[in-house]
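User:
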Amino acid sequence: MKVFEANITIKVIDFFKQNLKNNDLMIVNQLINKFCGILKFFDNQNEMNELIQVLKIEQNIVSEQDRAEYGDFQTPKKLSDLTCKLLQTKNIKPQIIIEPTCGKGSFILSALEHFPTIEKLFGIEIYPKYVWETKFSVLDYFITNPLNKKPEILIINKNIFDFDFKEISNHHKDKEILVIGNPPWVTNSMLSVLNSDNLPKKSNFKNIKGLDAMTGKGNFDIAEYIALMILNNFSNHNGHFAFLQKNSVTKNIVFDQLTNKYSIGNVEKYNFDAKKEFNVATDASLFFCQFNRKYSTTCDEYDLYEPTNLKYQLGWFKNKFVANLTTYAELHEFDGICPIVWRQGIKHDCSKIMELEKVNGHYINQNNEQFEIENDLVYCILKSSDLKTGIISQSRKYTIVTQTKIGENTDYIQSKLPKTYQYLNSKIDYFNNRKSSIYNNKPNFSIFGVGDYSFKKYKVAISGFYKSTNFALLLPNNEKAIQLDDTCYFIGFDNLEYAVYTYIILNHKITQDFLNSIIFFDSKRPITKDILMRIDLLKIADKFQFQVVSDFYHKSLNELQLTINEQNWIEFKKSMNNKSKTNEINLFSTIY
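Assistant: Predicted structure:
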């Protein structure tokens, strides 16, 4: 049954039927407080009268709004119990519990069950239905467990961003505090799109400067904002902090510790299966730390289901923020500047008409339209999902490459390639409707991420989106360079042997271990140009003899039928050492 749109049990209904015979608000609130500890169960007489009327009806079923789009993933009781059991093993004995976004009250119920030391409990929630559901659940808990200790409980219907934590902080400085919960898993921009009132007041809370704040870096997770509210108010108190949140939020908190220097120590994250627990495809964990400690810039990583085994430690190593401090400490000498500039693939933002398939000799676009064009500007293209380790010389898709450099005039297409021009011009609205400002005042059919490097015959490439650091070796298709889309990164060569050497270095265990120590695979785009440019290829190459290169080649790349030799390996390393002023190296000249 539902009352005030909130679930209510038969036990609680029976309790109210027996105890709401008195119509005096103060007396009823005192009675409920004595029974379950909740202060001001009813805020006013109208609420109590309405409940009395509702209970006279046998059924009052109201459909429940799906609030997942608001980042509202209600915590399963098993998960809140698992969290509290973990905290129990740390001998945590809180006197004050604060749940900043209590929802339906799972963490409040678990805290009542696991921490008999609680003296006062605060639950804050913006959604009235959940406030009632929490109150009903707490009442049901004490009906079932009448002998359990009853702390003073306040369930407060308020926007968390309007709540003043300073009052709690000032009144309970001598108490052991536990802040626990599961804040919304959504960004401020998404809530704005949904016209939600549950937003912090507009402010650049991370002090992001200028253009970055305007172009997306000003977007942040609501959970991170709430976490920083808690740290600002309680990090100098005695107590602990435990939030279920996306791993990206935890990473940001630890990253910012170098400048924020919150008084938190014993910082830990306990990964759990968000798909299983919340049916949401993201990487998440329990973030835990202890207040009032020397500030920490590292975080130990565990598994919430098997919390005794340390997996990794992430955080700061001198001036570098890394994913695995132990491995990085062993390999940090390879963290430098890559002597070869990594490039991103082609960006066109017109996939429906620019990405093609070939069926029976005809091209078909993503609108399933068949047409004929000249082959001159048509190239094989690979997307992130196409990049596996090994040799690739074919593709499932094609693309039209209209320019050889950014901003190049495209008028030539009309005179030299009439079929291609007719096709592209017939789709001019697609080009004109592209949202990105980078295409403003550019020639018709413009693309980005294109230059001389795009047409190098041989490439070594990697996906930016996948949780893999395997690199692929790309060979030309019908003498034309294979292209990549803008989710991929690559370096290009005119010389196959140099491409092979680079491929071998990048797939060597040293490089793989180094990359795995600095990459946060739970990021939306784990592998970026910044990450790849940190690989000091020359230092890694100097760590092993030519025999290692030869063995790798004969085991994995022998089908290329190259004759590699130690002298060319030495020349290759010398070429990497001859850096230009821009750190780009001329690895593209043909060997004679």
